[in-house]
Automatic annotation (TrEMBL), chain B:
Gene3D superfamilies: Cytochrome c-like domain (1.10.760.10). Signal peptide: none annotated. Pfam families: FixO. SUPFAM superfamilies: Cytochrome c (SSF46626). It comes from Heliorestis acidaminivorans. GO terms for molecular function: electron transfer activity; heme binding; metal ion binding. This is Cytochrome c domain-containing protein. Residues 53-161 form the Cytochrome c domain. The chain crosses the membrane at residues 6-28. Keywords: Heme, Iron, Membrane, Metal-binding, Transmembrane, Transmembrane helix.
Amino acid sequence: MSTNSLSLLSTEKDSAAKYMMLSSLIWLIVPSLLGLFLAIKLVWPDFLNQSPYLSFGPMRTVHTNGVLLGWLSMVQVGAMYYMLPRLLNTTLWSERLGNVTVWMWNIGMTIGAGTLFMGITSGVEYAELIWPLDLYIVVMVSLVILNAFMTVAQRQERQFYVSVWYFLGSMVWLPLVYLVGNVPVEMIHVPGVHQLNMNWFLGHNILGLWFTTMGVAMVYYLLPKVTGLPIYSHKLSLIGFWTIAIFYVWNGPHHLANGPIPPWLQKAGIVPSLLMIIPVWTVIANVFGTIKNQMNLIRDNVIVKYLITAGIFYLAACLQGPFQSFMSVSAVLKFTHWTVGHAHMAPFATFTFIGMAAMYYIIPRLTGQSLYSWSLANWTYWLGTLGFLVMGLSLWTAGVMQGFAWIDGKDFMAVVEAIRPYMLLRILGGAMMMASMVVFLWNMVMTVRTSQAKIPLEQSDQKVMVQS
Amino acid sequence: MERNTTKLIVLSLFFFAVGFVATVLLPFMDQGLMRPTPTAEYRKELILDQPDSPEARGRALYMQYGCQYCHSQWVRPVLADERLGPVLRAGDSYYDAPHLHGSARIGPDLLWVGDRIPDKGWHIQHLIDPQGVVEGSIMPSYNWLTEEELEALAAYMVSLKYIENPDDVVDPQYRY
């Protein structure tokens, strides 16, 4: 790290990317720990229940908002600050402005977490922050967008690589999706069922038109860089981009399957959900096509292993999603723990993994030293992957049990009792995921510590990851 | 297009707008979604028109402590919901700002809990000591709420009841 790394608004090259990614770690660790606490509360309800601030509802909102608006959004924006200038053969338009957004993000998240802990909430799932904070976020995101588009404007490379498409699409869609979901209903009356619809327009599209598009952009950047292999098909990646742009935005109403909305609206949400298989297939085909002759890289290179695993879970999530959106399937699985398992798959096993892979690649390049330990990175991978599988499989099993038991007319408490073992397993899975993140944090902290002996950077990517 | 920022932005916005108009704006034209039911009118009188009523205060607490994350207020025309009372109509939550339909049933559905358990005392006791009232319950205790807050939440619970609606189809089509 250079000497002016302590200045509040650095103009040093890549400082915004570095600080955005490093400070996102706070929002990975703390809200995830709260998630683990929540899982414990579902078995032992009196755990940490001595004060209103630590009760289930407020803690859940800090967990979801923290990992989504904090960790995932920050690591993705940080990666964009690093990748976009390189793809366009220029520098970030304003490092200073980038660092302003780093501060705004961390301060905003701190205030947001504080208000949510105090129970100050809009009450809208995934849009709980109150409207003054929403305005703050709109201003902050506008600054990110300004920086991205000005960087595009001053580019030296005319041709847009596919990652640039995905980054710019995300920049266009995020503010719109956010505004629709956060209409302040206490001021502008929206009939309940329409607001429900808008709520899930946000709930779905923030994933599809923000986390997914940013994450895919990062994969398309990282995979060729790390492997030294060209992307299998440029055309395929563009088909993927436009099918996301055309179909994803329609998916909101499938969250209201069998709900108080007309059948035409349910079908308008369900049919495009099935078509989502096209964009996910293009990504998977491209990822596997790229490394098809060098599959050994999955074993030998931790970053490739992360990206491939993220791709597999992305495919799984996008097969599960259309399946669940069928009215007949939704009638069984909606409101059960199945949904909770599904809701963790893409944010954790896909986009958190991509975020971690990006940090393994970028942070050593920005600090000028190799990663502290690839062996620890491997531990992070296995704890995270196996932990998620334990949690996901126990939630999915519990969800199927709940769904069919309710149809059979079983007593509600008997079902709660029956799924208790799975809730215990879920805690175990969650604890492994948490351990994975702590190891990741340790690895990152040790990498940026200046006392580390410097190892030439070139070794850090290609370094073969095998047990000695 | 692979070099043109404007084209990329305009097309991205266009496809977004098509989906937005179809799935968010068009439903506003659907009269069936814009007609409040007697249940909605009843809740409007109790809560929206009297922001200081115990029911309104109770609803605010329900939101504040995130009850909706474990309790749905959403009965569907499906077999799993057959024993939960009348199916939710679009107009039932017409005046709700925000909606509290929820997305999970870690605890039971509360759409018509006022019909099922009209006794305020039960609700207060249950909030203070869930396991004492329902054996094996995984609901946390809310014994740190003040007496007035407990009263308000109980009043809100009891207000969640079905008001006869002449427009309702008597026998909804249960599917799946």
